[in-house]
């Protein structure tokens, strides 16, 4: 079976959940006898494609992001080089990695993955929401099949885009981040800390964690707040931290996976307060590092986390404060969450994701050939 993945996400992300998903598919599927994978990306910025296990499958060259205009240059080069890179060759399956009005490549089967519906549910947070939705509709219409990364995403896609339910299936993602080792760097903060990971868009709801500290003198007295990844604190966030009385004990950190592992392993708890997620890999990363998870009840989070989380309403700062206080004060409760997390993480692997994806490809290809 010949499978091709297009350039889209690899020209947009140096690192990120979506590009990691496709890099893992390529790496796992290339080990299957009779399966040949290709990434058709004439010019790409993504660093997962530089991994030894993947690089040989890429039709293109890496472009280091060295100046502000790089994304435009990459997009322009790809638009010129894509016809030559595809070369008129037909594949059994073309899997589009993001959403676009136009498509590339010839195949018997075209597959699309839908990750979430944040642009449709929170359009005011995204200046390009209308364009993304338009492209998503076009990509979904031309796809022979749509993979959704959770039942929540499948249900929302059917409802908001009008996609026929029978055209969609659910395949869960895996978790790449392993447990921190003795050689991992060690975070150093004045006190134990609560960890937040990722960007802090409004729907990600970082403010409710600040609010939980404002509600709890116990948390303010005994814990720091660490935000890993994303941009530095904005002036508005700094003002909220000041008002909550924790400006001096809030820290922003950026770094690689090794440093992230170490921060999970050293945290008193990982807090995931989002108002919506299409899947949610960070709670799984926390579980892999024996870090108890406090998470909101929104979106797909409870679907993925199951019984391994301390839940709170995403709009209830006092409820989050109570959950965190119990988690760190009740040793038996914290130990139970850690044990359940170790069990839960076993449900999600990239090898399982790749195997289920390949089964989907094979079923679709057989249907088109009458087999």
Mean pLDDT: 94
Which bin fits the share of residues in helices?
40-55%
Quantity of strands, as a count: 13
Gross geometry: globular
Question: Briefly, what is this?
Answer:
The chain is of the alpha/beta class.
Tell me about this structure.
The protein has 371 residues and is α/β, with parallel strands linked by helices. Helices cover 42% and strands 18% of the residues. The chain has two domains: 2-174 and 349-368, Rossmann fold (3-Layer(aba) Sandwich), CATH 3.40.50.2000; 193-347, Glycogen Phosphorylase B (Rossmann fold, 3-Layer(aba) Sandwich). It has helices at residues 17-29, 52-55, 70-86, 118-121, 129-142, 151-161, 206-215, 217-222, 235-244, 257-266, 282-288, 301-305, 317-329, 331-344, 350-368; strands spanning 2-5, 36-44, 58-62, 90-96, 106-114, 145-148, 168-170, 193-197, 224-228, 250-253, 269-272, 293-296, 309-312. The chain has a seven-stranded parallel beta sheet with strand order 3-2-1-4-5-6-7, sandwiched between helices. Strands 10-9-8-11-12-13 form a six-stranded parallel beta sheet, sandwiched between helices. Helix 1 links the parallel strand 1 (2-5) and strand 2. Helix 1 packs across helix 15 (350-368), helix 7 (206-215) packs across helix 13 (317-329) and helix 11 (282-288) crosses helix 14. The mean pLDDT is 94.
Main attributes of the structure:
371 residues, alpha/beta, Rossmann fold, 6-stranded parallel beta sheet
SSE topology sketch:
Layout: E1 2-5, H1 17-29, E2 36-44, H2 52-55, E3 58-62, H3 70-86, E4 90-96, E5 106-114, H4 118-121, H5 129-142, E6 145-148, H6 151-161, E7 168-170, E8 193-197, H7 206-215, H8 217-222, E9 224-228, H9 235-244, E10 250-253, H10 257-266, E11 269-272, H11 282-288, E12 293-296, H12 301-305, E13 309-312, H13 317-329, H14 331-344, H15 350-368
Parallel strand pairs: 1-2, 1-4, 2-3, 4-5, 5-6, 6-7, 8-9, 8-11, 9-10, 11-12, 12-13
């Amino acid at each position: 079976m010949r499978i091709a993945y297009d350039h889209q996400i690899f020209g947009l992300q140096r690192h990120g959940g979506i590009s990691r998903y496709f890099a893992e598919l390529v790496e796992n599927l290339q080990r299957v006898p009779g399966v040949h994978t290709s990434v058709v990306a004439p010019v790409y910025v993504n660093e997962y494609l530089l991994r030894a296990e993947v690089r040989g499958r890429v039709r293109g060259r890496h472009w280091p992001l060295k100046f502000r205009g790089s994304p435009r240059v990459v997009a322009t080069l790809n638009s010129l080089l894509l016809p030559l890179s595809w070369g008129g060759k037909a594949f059994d399956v073309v899997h589009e990695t993001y959403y676009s009005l136009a498509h590339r490549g010839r195949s018997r089967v075209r597959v699309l993955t839908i990750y979430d519906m944040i642009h449709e549910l929170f359009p005011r947070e995204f200046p390009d929401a209308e364009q993304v939705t338009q492209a998503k509709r076009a990509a979904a219409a031309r796809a022979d099949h749509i993979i959704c990364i959770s039942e929540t995403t499948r249900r929302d896609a059917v409802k908001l885009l009008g996609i026929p339910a029978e055209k969609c299936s659910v395949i869960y993602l895996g978790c790449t981040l392993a447990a921190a080792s003795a050689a991992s760097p060690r975070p150093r903060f004045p006190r134990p800390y609560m960890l937040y990971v990722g960007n802090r868009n409004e729907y990600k709801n970082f403010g409710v964690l600040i609010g939980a500290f404002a509600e709890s003198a116990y948390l303010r007295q005994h814990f720091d707040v660490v935000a890993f990844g994303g941009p530095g604190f904005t002036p508005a966030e700094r003002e909220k931290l000041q008002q909550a009385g924790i400006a001096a004990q809030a820290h922003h950190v950026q770094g690689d996976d090794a440093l992230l592992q170490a921060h999970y392993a050293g945290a008193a708890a990982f807090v995931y307060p989002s108002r919506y997620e299409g899947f949610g890999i960070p709670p799984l990363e926390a579980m892999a590092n024996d870090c108890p998870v406090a998470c909101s009840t929104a979106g797909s989070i409870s679907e993925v986390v199951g019984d391994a989380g301390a839940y709170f309403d995403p709009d209830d700062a006092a409820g989050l404060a109570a959950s965190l206080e119990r988690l760190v004060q009740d040793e038996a409760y914290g130990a139970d969450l850690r044990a359940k997390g170790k069990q839960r993480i076993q449900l999600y692997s990239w090898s399982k994701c790749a195997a289920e994806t390949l089964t989907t490809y094979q079923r679709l290809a057989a249907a088109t050939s009458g087999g």
